[in-house]
Design goal:
CATH architecture of the largest domain: Orthogonal Bundle
Bound molecules: coenzyme A
CATH superfamily of the largest domain: Citrate Synthase, domain 1
CATH topology of the largest domain: Citrate Synthase, domain 1
Number of domains: 2
Order of helices and strands: HEEEEEHHHHHHHHHHHHHHHH
Strand content: under 5%
Helix content: 55-70%
CATH class of the largest domain: Mainly Alpha
Distance between the termini: 49 Å
Length: 396
């Protein structure tokens, strides 16, 4: 990463109001601030390591499934055979949306932002959930399953609605990932496509105290409810500095593909204009994001399956250029963009798909927060005017 190092930023000191003493400057963006303990996931930014409940993400990507990973995040351990079957069954049983939510979904204007639809319908599900305000752990666990089961059908249901196509019923023999692709495209995915998408869901399921997870924890720490926490998280994920980056990457790749300009020249011009290149850089990783390693491989594999490696080639060139020019690595969003695109997923659904995986992590964090809760309420450094006297309207 280029620029001022985080430690020097954190160590910067500013004079106090009367200039007589120095006090620490605020850690802008809360960089480097440890706000709580967690046992859900941990990131080693300099070694490029991510683990969920002690299991390395590479191990999970190779051997686990999204359903099993969700159980691991919620329960803190891998399930035995019976527990795995039970969580799979619960996720299947809970995936039907309440009729009120379906009616609202189908009344959404077709041009709506899919993240805004997802945020709205998720919030609306609470209205028909008798458990909505129960913050006891068993109720939270039930709602974690319900929310995780229902986010995918909301995303697919809205896509079918905006296309004027009929909503499809899930297929029993397909797992969570395969069903989503079927509900979205109306075609059963190949086993390879389903496995790639399943691993994408595993890779996105949790990531420490990222912005959306933190907002979910802040919300429930007031003793609000899990739906409010997940709705806050969805609003936070929507932004282009967080979950929205994968969509921005795809727009950039398609624009570059259409322009005929060399990717290196195009990226150089953007950097000269001081633009941030989406899909690069990370607050925590200062080396390769371990999730990018898998997504790069998927992007390449899907390109060769389709007999068209141009998107992958272009991505590789951009990645090499960013390393050479800025010493910045690609993040999870860079190759997830071309992976999702080649799976036939529309660009504006990339962030909702991120959400349908991350909801497993958000709900695990809600349970952890409420198991040992304290209101989250930081302070700010006031830099505005002081001691002004009120001036009447006539005298202003
Ligand atoms: N393109 C170009 N330069 C970048 C960059 C990018 N994507 N990401 C970071 N940098 C540069 C910054 O310009 C800055 O340089 P400077 O100190 O000379 O000004 C330096 O690296 C540090 O960046 P900063 O924005 O302070 O880091 P941050 O920790 O606040 O932000 C991100 C992290 C992720 C928000 C930032 O890297 C970014 O905007 N990336 C693009 C969006 C993205 O892909 N988000 C998804 C993250 S998973």
């Amino acid at each position: 990463m280029t620029g001022t190092s985080s430690s020097s930023k954190e160590q910067a000191r500013s004079p106090s109001a009367d200039g007589s003493s120095a006090k620490p400057a605020p850690a802008t963006g809360l960089e480097g601030v440890v706000v709580a303990q967690t046992s859900i996931s941990t990131i080693d930014g300099s070694a490029g390591k991510l683990s969920y409940r002690g299991y390395d993400i590479h191990d999970l990507a190779e051997h686990s499934t999204f359903e099993e990973t969700a159980f691991l995040l919620w329960e803190g351990r891998l399930p035995d055979r019976g527990e795995l079957e039970a969580v799979r069954r619960e996720l299947r049983e809970q995936r039907a949306l309440p009729p009120e939510a379906v009616a609202l979904l189908e009344s959404a204007p077709r041009q709506s932002n899919p993240m805004a639809v997802l945020r709205t319908i998720t919030s609306a599900i609470a209205l028909t959930d008798p458990d909505a305000d129960d913050n006891a752990q068993p109720a939270l666990r039930r709602k974690a399953v319900r929310l995780t089961a229902q986010l995918g059908p909301i995303v697919a249901g809205f896509h079918r609605h905006r296309q004027g196509a009929a909503r499809l019923e899930p297929r029993e023999h397909l797992d969570y990932a395969g069903n989503f692709l079927y509900l979205l495209n109306g075609r059963e995915p190949t086993p390879e496509e389903a496995r790639i998408f399943d691993v994408c869901l595993i890779l996105h399921a949790d990531h420490g105290f990222n912005a959306s997870t933190f907002s979910a924890r802040v919300t429930v720490a007031t003793l609000s409810d899990i739906y409010s926490g997940v709705t806050s998280a969805l609003g936070t994920l929507k932004g282009s500095l967080h979950g929205g980056a994968n969509e921005a990457v795809m727009k950039m790749l398609l624009e570059l593909q259409g322009s005929g300009e060399s990717p290196e020249d195009a990226i150089r011009r953007r950097l000269e204009r001081k633009e941030k290149i989406s899909g690069f850089g990370h607050r925590v990783y200062k080396t390769e994001d371990p999730r990018a390693t898998h997504l790069r491989r998927f992007s390449e594999e899907l390109g060769s399956q389709r007999g068209d490696g141009t998107l992958f080639e272009m991505s590789r060139r951009i990645e090499a250029f960013m390393r050479a020019e800025k010493d910045i690595y690609s993040n999870v969003d860079f190759y997830s963009a071309s992976t999702y695109y080649q799976l036939g997923i529309p660009t504006d659904l990339f962030t909702p798909i991120f959400a349908m995986s991350r909801v497993a992590g958000w709900t695990a964090h809600v349970m952890e927060q409420l198991a040992n809760n304290r209101l989250i309420r930081p302070r700010s450094e006031y830099v505005g005017e002081r001691n002004l006297r009120y001036v009447s309207l006539e005298q202003r």
